[in-house]
Structures are given as structure tokens and as C-alpha cells.
Design goal:
This protein is of the alpha/beta class. The protein contains 15 helices and 22 strands. Helix content is about 30%, strand content about 25%. The longest helix is centred in the N-terminal third of the chain and has 25 residues.
Length: about 475
Amino acid sequence: MADQFDLVVIGSGPGGYVGAIRAAQLGMKVAVVEKWPSLGGTCLNIGCIPSKALLHASELFEEAGHGFKSLGIDIPAPVLNLPQMMNHKAEVVASNVGGVDYLFKKNKITVLRGTGSIPAAGRVLVTPQSGAPTEVQAKNIVIATGSVSANLPGIEIDEKTVVTSTGALTLEKVPGHLLVIGAGVIGLELGSVWLRLGAKVTVVEYLDRILPGMDSEVARQFQRMLQKQGMEFKLSSKVAGVDKQANGALQVRVEPSKGGEAEALDADVALVAIGRKPYTEGLGLEAAGVALDERGRVKVDHGFKTSVEGIYAIGDVIAGPMLAHKAEDEGIAIAEILAGQAGHVNYAAIPAVVYTNPEVASVGKTEDELKAEGVNYKIGKFPFTANGRAKAMQATQGFVKILADVETDRVLGGHIVGKNAGEMIHELVTLMEFSGAAEDLARTTHAHPTLSEAVREAALALGDGAIHI
């Protein structure tokens, strides 16, 4: 007799493991299928968590080398110990992965090691790396298999010199020249890590701007900041090929997006960061009757239900922003729906963060979107150059920008470029969750001196005007 579960989740990334824990909290008997040796998926093992460890370490290296002197801290020039920095990253990953193991044991969640596939509704086949496959019964199945790095045709990834984000997190030495293909979040974050550690970094982007989808004013200002740091950009350009030379170096052919004369750039490492694609390989979805959309994503309704009764999907494998916290919220929502509760995700208030230095954070609508929709909006802005705490921290780059409806004063979007922007965005997220007005924020007391005062000042700018400019 096969094991029987109320819920079997395929994939233990942020969506899968959070959904499993919430379902267990709600009294369900839960199993999670995971093919990797460790839990946590891309985010914890080869994505969000290890990249943040390197971002933080490289920022401190940069600060020690260039920022300490003006603060009255005289030290010799810092020396990079890359193996130890990578060891720090590995320890952070191990700690987080171990935390998921602990939470599964605490919540009595069964881990099934192997690749999961769905022969039919109510059945999950688990195929281990060695040994015979086993089948379990499930009242409900949630597909949470996430995404993988997308590649360009004709480019061979070896994760040594031509790398995805995975290889860029494990380079054994600082490349002399790192060429980044794609000016999205992943490319800019990892490019900034190696730039701070001493690499020359060139970013090639097909579009005429960086950070597609983010507010265009924010993207323009942020690009200038990155250029001041030494990052070079080739916009409206595409990579036509990457050739490996006999000496191990690369020659990258770059040409205008709309056609024209190509140029050859020499590089030591090329990072392909053109986005990610949903991972559905080996799930047997076609045989099970689970429908996909034109982009290979699993089609679901508002309750995350696929075309087959009892089979659901969440996270990067369905439509929407490929963000760990979006997947987490969907994991909680599907568990609550299966328990008969009103699980819900507010997609209009999901923050997005670029963890560079300074950070870029946003929530809600961009100015470009409001213009396109014909919404009558107003803008409140406040620069960190006028913030006392920012001056004390030598963190005056950037600004806060809040967009609100002219008639109702309801906040429609918020955008922050600056130190700790990813932490500051959440008061705007909370405000938008409760359909708050700019005046609500403007009348809320903020501790002084803090960087967050700039958010209040931007809200004040939507009324009679900010106080400190």
C-alpha cells in the first residue's frame, strides 16, 4: 500500500517549503519531494542567500578600501582572501538549509528524496538517483519546481568561463574582465560583487535601458551611479557569440540590437543573465493533462488550480514576478485554500529589490505604467542628500519617489534608490496593503535621525511640500 498524504509538494524552494510548513500547521499530513541533496531550492543554495553573502562581504571590502579614511579610521589597504569569503558564503548557505531541515522535522513533514513526477491526479512517483522508484498517494499535489537560468542559442555554458548565476557565485579568482549579458537584477548584483573585488565589468543589454520593468527615471539615475563606480554599459546591444580562445580567454561578439557592425570584446568570464525560465522537465505534465501557457508556465486559476483537479502550482513555474517572497506568499495561500480558508496574494503590493550598493526597491506602479494607463497621478520626491542620517553615514546617493492618485491621494507606487532601500520599502508595502493615502504616511511619526525619514518627506512632498528641502 503506497503512503498516503493530504498534500505532496514537488520542490523545496521558498514556495514549496513555506507552503508545506503552513499546510502542516493547518493539520495536514505533508510530504515534500526534493531531488537535490539539500532543501531550500535555488534561492537558499545557489541564488538569493549566497549572493547576499557575497554582496555584503564585497561591500565591506570596498568600504574598508575607500570609505574608512574620511571617517577617521586609518588601516592598511585591505587584502582580499577570496577562499575565506567563499567559505563565509558556504556557511551562510549551510545555516539556512539546516534551518529548513529543522523546520520540517518540527512540523513532521516527510522528505522524499528523488525526482518527482505525476503519473495522474492523486499520484506522485519519486525516482531517486539510485534504487527503485516509489509511488505515494496524495489528495492534493502542488508543483513548486521553480525556474532555471535562460540561455542564448549557440552559447555553451560551462560554469567556469561562460557562467550562469550559479557559476558566478563560485569563481575561484577575480576575473580581469567580466562581461555580463543582461542588465537585469541578477546581472547587476553579481556584476557589482566582482567589480568591487577588482574586476573590470561590462554589461551588454539588448534594450536601451537597464532594469527592464522598473521605473525608468529610477533606472536612469541608478545607471549613472553604477557608471561612477566603474561599471560600463553597452545598451541597445546583443551578444552574437562567445568564442573560447586557446589560452582560455573569451572573445565576445557584440552588435547593435537592430543590426549593424559587430565588435569583438575580450573577456575572462562571461555571465549569462538574461532571465530565468520555468522548470517543468521530467514532471510528466503532458501525460497527466496539466496545461502550460505559451511561455512554458503552468496555467493556473486564481486559486492556483491547474487544468487537472487536485493538482496546483505556485512560484516561478506560474505567471508573475520570479521572486522568492512571491512564491512564499503563494505557498501560504494555497495551503490555506486547501484547508478551506481564504488564501490570497495581493500582486499589486509585492516589493522588488536590487541588492546592489545603493539598493533599488520598488512596489506597485511605475510612472511609465501610470502614464500608459492614463491615470491622473502626482509625484512626491525627496533626495537622501537632504537626510541627516544619510549624511552621517556617507550614504547620500539616491532618493525616494512616491506616486499617488491626484483625486484620492491613494498611494499607487513607491520607488527608493539608496542605502537599505530594501528595508525601507516595507512601510510603503504596508500602506498600500491597507489602501493608504500619502497623507496617512506624511502624518506618521518617524524616528529622527533615520534614513526612513526620507520616505515621510516624499509623502509630505505630495501635499504642501517636504520640510527639509
